[in-house]
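Example 5.3 — DUF6788 domain-containing protein
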Amino acid sequence: MSYEPPIPPANPPTEIVNTLNESHPEQLREIATYAEALAEHKEREARLEEETTEDEIEKRPDDLPDDVPTKATITIKEINDNRYYYWQWREGKKIKSKYKGPVNPDE
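Solution (predicted structure tokens):
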């Protein structure tokens, strides 16, 4: 290990480098852990976006509305003794639904 301070990478803004230089070792280790986890998260998100290829878009069901993602599934909800189909998907921590139509009891 060198006794000279490390040379920062060329890319980060000066404000970030200055803030890091003024931080205590414990804060720097916490920031490093956070930065590594954040980088992994962003890489995973980018991979998920890349997985949505033209092939997947072409496989989109004909009755899937434009504002419903292809990852949506169909669920059945019972309201006042009537059954209805809903498209359902997750956006972050929330579950989103969109009405599809009534369940046909003859099917």
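Remark. The chain has a mean pLDDT of 84.
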